[in-house]
Design goal:
By secondary structure, the protein is of the alpha+beta class. The chain is built from 10 helices and 10 strands.
C-alpha cells in the first residue's frame, strides 16, 4: 500500500489546495503483487495523510483477507491500526522508526542467514503505545548485500524466515515502478478538464486502460513488456487491424507490415 502525489496549478484547480501557492491531489493504491494489478484506488487532496486514508476503510471499501500480507512504508505506522490488522489475522511488514521505544524479550529463532543481523521478539515500551498494540512484535534487522545498507523491519508474522520478511518489503518497490509507469504512459499529470469530476473521470479511464492492457497481455501471453504493448496499440489504434495480428510483432517491425492507407479520389 502506498500513495503518489500529483501536483496541479492552484489557479486552474482551486479545489485541490495543497500549499499556499500550490495544488495537488493524492492517489492512494493497494497494489496486488501476485497479479501486478491495483486492487483499489481512492483520490484525496494532497494534505490527507496516508494512515488517515488507510484507517477509513468504510470509505475505501476494501477488505484484506486473513493470511494475506500487506507491506507499506513508515508513513502508515499507527499501532492502533496495526493491531486491527493483527486481530483480522492479516500479516504486515513495514520499516521501523527510530522513535519507536521497545524492549527485546527474546530471540525469535537462530540466525542462519549472514545478511540477517537480528531476529528478535519485542514489545512496545511506552504504556500508551503498548495499550494500542499489546501483542508481541518481531524485529528483523537485515543488511542489503548489494549496497551494504542496514534495514530494520517490524512484522507480526512469526512463521516466515527473516530473509523472506526482508524480501517482502523489497518487493514493495513494484508499486513505485507502477506509479512511474502510469505517470509516464497514461497521461494522468495533464488533465483535459479542471473540475474534480473531470480529473477523477480521466484517472479512472486511465486505470481501466491499464487493466485492459494487463488483461490482454495475460490472455494472449504477449512476450514483450507492457510498455511495448502500449506503443503497439497506440501505433495501430486508428487503423482497421486485428489486435491479435499485432501481438507477434515488435514495435520496430510494425511499419514493415502496415498496409498503406488508400488515397481518396478527388472528383
Amino acid at each position: 500500500m502506498d500513495s503518489t502525489l500529483i501536483t496541479l496549478c492552484l489557479s486552474v484547480f482551486p479545489w485541490a489546495a495543497f500549499r499556499q501557492r500550490k495544488g495537488a491531489i493524492k492517489l492512494h493504491y493497494l497494489y496486488d503483487h501476485q497479479g501486478s494489478l491495483p486492487a483499489f484506488m481512492v483520490m484525496t487532496d494532497g494534505k490527507s495523510s496516508d494512515i488517515r486514508v488507510a484507517r477509513s476503510q468504510e470509505k475505501l471499501d476494501f477488505h484484506l483477507l486473513p493470511d494475506s500480507i500487506i507491506s507499506f512504508d513508515r508513513a502508515y505506522i499507527d499501532f492502533e491500526w496495526l493491531y486491527s490488522l493483527n486481530q483480522r489475522k492479516v500479516w504486515f511488514v513495514t520499516r521501523s522508526k527510530s522513535t519507536i521505544r521497545y524492549r527485546i524479550i527474546g530471540q525469535h529463532q537462530p540466525i542462519t542467514n549472514k545478511q540477517v543481523t537480528q531476529d528478535e521478539k519485542i514489545e512496545l515500551l511506552i504504556d500508551k503505545t503498548r495499550a494500542k498494540y499489546p501483542k508481541t512484535l518481531r524485529l528483523v534487522c537485515y543488511t542489503d548485500p548489494e549496497t551494504g545498507t542496514s534495514y530494520e523491519f517490524i512484522t507480526n508474522n512469526m512463521k516466515l524466515a527473516a530473509s523472506t520478511i526482508a524480501g517482502i518489503y523489497k518487493s514493495r518497490w513494484q508499486i513505485e515502478l507502477f506509479f512511474k509507469w502510469i505517470k509516464q504512459n497514461l497521461k494522468i499529470k495533464s488533465f483535459l478538464g479542471t473540475s474534480k469530476n473531470a480529473v477523477l473521470t480521466q484517472i479512472w479511464i486511465a486505470m481501466c486502460y491499464y487493466l485492459l492492457l494487463s488483461y490482454i497481455k495475460f490472455q494472449t501471453k504477449y512476450r514483450y513488456s507492457l510498455q511495448e504493448l502500449t506503443r503497439m496499440i497506440a501505433a495501430v489504434v486508428m487503423e482497421q487491424r486485428l489486435l491479435i495480428d499485432m501481438l507477434s510483432l515488435k514495435e520496430h517491425s510494425l511499419k514493415k507490415v502496415r498496409e498503406p492507407v488508400p488515397q481518396l479520389a478527388l472528383f
